[in-house]
Structures are given as structure tokens and as C-alpha cells.
Amino acid sequence: MEQTELKKHLEAILFTAEQSLSINQLINFFPEQAHINKSAVQQALSALNNDYTNRGVHLQQTNQGYRFQTQADSNHYVSQHWQEKPSRYSRALLETLAIIVYRQPITRAEIEDIRGVSVSSSIIKTLEERQWVRILGHKEVPGRPALWGSSTTFLDDFNLRSLNDLPPLSEIKDFDQLILEINQNLADKT
User: Fold this and answer.
1) What is the CATH number of the domain that holds 183?
2) Strand positions, DSSP E, 20-177
3) CA gap 58, 60 in Å, rounded
């Protein structure tokens, strides 16, 4: 199979995929083609990415692999097709998420110590339902509290390849403005 044909098939696979697909997952779509290896798929993805320069959608590399998504400047127009209102997240929820992401693994009590107030069960439940956080283990202290950390879904939803892509805490000056930007970016993605 030539690169042009491989690129065509990868494009179709990625457009119809419900989630990001890794290079190994993409290779598995071609079991009868022994010459389709990691290098061939990477070259085809690179060519495909070039094809989508200055288009309404682009090929996005995420922590879990690759997916197509709309360009940020097109999100406003695309979102007009949806009737449902995007979720808005409270300051408390986003503070809790930020603490988990930057300080993981962390217990609920440690989160409460940092925030200075108790963490509502509904906040943890919402973060779990969005699959942004998960239990990484349990702390070896009496009561064995859960240790919370971020998930690969969090990385994908925030367009991060790894936690190293997060801005340093010292760069976050205006948390209220950051909350507005996060809510807008998440609204644009839905």
C-alpha cells in the first residue's frame, strides 16, 4: 500500500473514531499489511497533518494518540449547531482540579488543607464523571485515604500530551480570568 492510500485510510479511520487512536492502534487496522509499521504511519500522519493546514479541522496529537478536531477559530461557528448548553464549571471545581493536577498524588484532606475549605462530594463526583481524575492508590496512613491524580482523559480534554505541558504555577496570575478561559475552551470543544 502506498503512502497516499495509507493516508486516505488513516484519515477515514480517525474521522470515524470516537476517541484518540495511538500509532499502534492505527497499525492494527492493517494486519494483512506487514510493511505498515510505526514509521510508515508516522509519515502518513505527518503528510495528513500538512494537508489540513489552514483548514477548519486539524489533526491533533494527544496523550492517547491522534484525533481530528475543529480549529479553535472555527469553534464558535460549529458550536451554533448544538442545542444543549455547555457545562460551566465553578471556581471550587476548577481549583480542586488544579490542586489535584499540580500536586498529585494527593488525598482529599490535603486538598482541603490547601483550599482552606472542605471539598464537596459533588465536586469529586463531577471530576470523576468527566473522567478527569482517578484514584491512583491509597495513602499508607490510618484510614487509607484515596490518592487522587489526573487521567489521560484530562490530558486529552485539555489538549495536553503530558503533565509537562502544563504552565508553571508561577505563570498563573489571574485565576478568575483562567476560569473564564477554561469554561470557554471547554464550551468550544462540545
Assistant:
1) 1.10.10.10
2) 57-61, 66-70, 133-138, 146-150
3) 6
> What was the pLDDT predicted at 63?
86
pLDDT higher for 124 or 184?
Answer: 124
**Rounded distance, CA 43 to CA 5, Å?**
12
Boundary (domain end) residue, out of 59, 79, 99: 79
pTM comes to: 0.59
Span 3-57, pLDDT tens digits: 889 999 999 999 999 889 999 999 999 988 878 899 999 999 999 999 999 899 9
Residue 140 lies in a domain: yes
Domain around 72: 3-79
Whether residue 168 sits in one domain with residue 120: yes
Domain count of the chain? Answer: 2
**pLDDT of 79 higher than 90:** no
In angstroms, rounded to a whole number, what is the distance separating the alpha carbons of residues 16 and 110?
42
DSSP 73: G
Q: Tell me: do 95 and 184 sit in the same domain.
A: yes
Q: Output the nine-digit C-alpha cell for 63.
A: 496523550
CB 146 within 8 A of CB 108: yes
Calculate what percentage of the chain has a pLDDT beyond 70: 89
> Do residues 144 and 132 make contact, with C-beta atoms less than 8 angstroms apart?
no
